[in-house]
Amino acid sequence: MFRTNDHCKWLALAASLVCAISPLRAEEPTLAEDPFALAKQQHQQLEEQPWVSRSPQELQLWAKDNLHFKLRARTVIDADAHPEWEWFRQSGFGLFLHWGLASVAPNTGDAWAMVYSKHRNQESGMLRTPEEMFSVADTWNPASYDPDKWMAAASKAGFGYAVLTTRHHDGYGLWPSEQGDWDTGDKMNGRDLVKDYVEACRNNDIRIGFYYSGPNWHFDYKNKDFSWPPQGYNYKHEKVELVPPLAAVMGYDPPLPGDGDLREQAQSTEQVRELMTNYGPIDMMWWDGNSIMTPEALAELQPDIFVARGLIATPEGMHHGTSENVKVTNEAGWWWELCIKTENTNTPNWHYGAINETNHWNTNKFLSELVRCRSLGGNLLVNITPRPNGEMMDWFYDVCDEMGEWMQHSREAIYAVDLDAPLPTLDQTQNFTTKKGNNWYAMPDARGAVFITDVAAPKSVTLLRSGETLDYEFRDSALRVEVPAAMQTELPDMVKIVFAGAANL
Question: Which residue of 99, 307, 317, 401 has the smallest Cβ count within 10 Å?
Fold first, then answer.
């Protein structure tokens, strides 16, 4: 039977989908945040209801000044002007693949293990010098890499798109780049891991997304202050009085005028150009840190590409605000995507770690989080980490099988749904509810109950999984349904409510 603890847990889970409020920030950061430090931040809660008295345009201006920067969208997307992006909103479910050099060191906590953090040092000890991290490239050659097997399972489970870390903060490219000397062309005899991923996506009808890190810590590592916040630690984690200015220690061939920053920018720009021209049509670009190209520049190379981060709101991590913030986002007309790790324990790891093997989400968690995101008007991008040898963790296939069975009968509740469903705790219901025209789909609470107010009398109420008719009570424009315990399972048992006409009064 599907269970949660109580009403408070429902609210907490709703809160995990949205960003919190923070003091006004004057500028966007140029580099990705230290996830360990970010997890320690405390954010002010929203007390007012700005959507009540503001137009969408006024809401956009208000939100830019008041919402945590991760929720700030670059623009309001006109869906009618971009029918080529409709697949993103329809699918709603993506697979995030952090895979690279950091995967080979499962106990260090991702590429961020190179960055000295006082909190990390005191509480986790997950530190590794850049030289140690970079040396992995000399021997790493994943013999069991089989992305087609990954994507076959993902497609069956309902994933509509995938995002691969083509280059993470360590700067190592997973394809044989002609730029620099830090990629599979230099260290893996020209093996093209990106090409295999692209072909696997196409073979399994999965939309293709590329992650690309603007920061390149390998390019500038000898003079980089590897500490967060910057405290004057060099690449050996030694305390120094002053870290020297950035120098182009890795160089750019042919040499370009200017300092190291300009050379690094030029090298990164050319790498992105390779990714956009060497692999056929690409559906999505997912920036981390700096955006190397504008959406307009990308469109010259890939006319239909969708910029998922930098263009839309991306409320990440574990410490977010409440559904009020999602209300603002929806009312302001922003698209959003939640990217999140699938560990039950909050660790710095976005790449493979030993905890990924044993302490991960179960199928109920995957599907419940998906329903929540879709009911709140967003997409869910879940991070699942392949092993360093290229194998996917065994539990991934088990979960995909179970999700695939659920999708056979309940996919309509999360795919191509409308974006104006009632928000739980704010509007008509406490339940996470999606809708498609006159059909509503509600996830029962811990007791198996659904309660929705201010609606017309339903035409029918059924259990989506089986089509069985459910008893309900309708009184004073309020609908109450209880799924009998004998009909409940361990996965979300969606209740389908069909209205003869418009549901809202």
Answer: 401
